[in-house]
Every structure is written in C-alpha cells, then in structure tokens.
C-alpha cells in the first residue's frame, strides 16, 4: 500500500475531521489532554496542572494552554 491509497481510503474521514476543526497532528496530544482531565478532576489548581504538563511533555505553558483549549472546543 502506498500513502495515496491510505489517504484515498480515509478521504471521507479526513474531510469530516477537517470540517470539525480537527488537525491531523491532534492525535499527539491525546495523552496530555487525558492527564489534564485527570489532574483537574483530582482538584488540582489549573495553573499547577498546566505547569506540570508543560514540564512533563516538554512544552511551554502557553503551548499547553493552546493545546487544551483547542482540544476541548466544541465541534
């Protein structure tokens, strides 16, 4: 299978994801978002959660804020 075959096979899915505002690279942030939800539900302060995740995943705190806001926005 070549890349074009894979894209063609999933073309409709890719179109729907794009229309919903999902970026192809969003899959990389699933673990970060899952950790964010767990820490938030445990009652930790949002700023502490963001700083912890930034250090854990090697991002700046601004990048973590942006990733979380993007992933939790409605589609």
Descriptive report:
By secondary structure, this protein is an all-alpha fold. The chain has helices spanning 3-9, 11-19, 30-41, 46-57, 61-71. α3 packs antiparallel against α4 (46-57) and α4 (46-57) crosses α5.
Q: Residue ranges: pLDDT <50 for 5 or more in a row?
A: none
Kindly, what is the distance between the CA atoms of the first and last residues, rounded to a whole number of angstroms? Answer: 32 Å
Largest sheet: none
Return the domain count. 1
| Secondary structural class | mainly alpha
Mean pLDDT: 96
Question: What Rg do the Cα atoms give?
Answer: 15 Å
Number of strands: 0
Approximately how much beta-strand content do the residues carry?
A: under 5%
| Helical stretch tally | 5
Q: What fraction, in percent, of the residue positions are helical? A: 55-70%
User: What is the approximate shape?
Assistant: elongated
Succession of helices and strands: HHHHH
């Amino acid at each position: 299978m070549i890349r074009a075959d894979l894209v063609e096979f999933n073309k409709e899915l890719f179109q729907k994801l794009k229309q919903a505002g999902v970026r192809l690279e969003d899959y990389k942030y699933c673990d970060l978002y899952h950790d964010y939800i767990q820490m938030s539900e445990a009652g930790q302060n949002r700023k502490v959660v963001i700083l912890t995740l930034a250090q854990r995943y090697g991002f700046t705190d601004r990048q973590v804020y942006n990733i979380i806001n993007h992933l939790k926005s409605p589609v």
